[in-house]
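Researcher: We plan to redesign the surface later, but first we want a full-length starting point. Tokens attached.
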């Protein structure tokens, strides 16, 4: 296993200064996992990081909803959502665009639901 900082290369975020804590996620090599217990431990670590990322994404998406003139489900932007999925498909080609579209649709809908509470 090795630590790698997940980097949003190519993005510009003035609020994301280096002073903000970096999320370090161990990205295990599948070849290094020899047992079910090791693989499950790796999944647990990835899931923990994913939960933090999803929560932060929902917080930022809620802010977007407050800033847009039309928010919530009525304010969904299919072009923006396609661009998100396309960018993710470039980073994770083995998942494929269709799978990523389904995943991101669920993430976006859950985030919108959370923002309405």
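Model: Full-length starting sequence:
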């Amino acid at each position: 296993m090795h630590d790698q900082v997940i980097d949003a290369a190519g993005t510009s975020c003035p609020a994301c200064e280096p002073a903000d804590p970096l999320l370090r996620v161990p990205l295990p090599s599948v070849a290094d996992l020899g047992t079910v217990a090791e693989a499950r431990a790796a999944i647990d670590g990835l899931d923990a990081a994913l939960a933090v990322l999803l929560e932060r994404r929902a917080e930022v998406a809620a802010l977007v909803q407050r800033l847009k003139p039309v928010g919530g489900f009525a304010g969904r932007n299919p072009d923006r959502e396609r661009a998100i999925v396309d960018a993710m498909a470039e980073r994770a080609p083995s998942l494929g665009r269709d799978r990523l579209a389904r995943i991101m649709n669920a993430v976006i809908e859950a985030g919108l639901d959370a923002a309405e509470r």
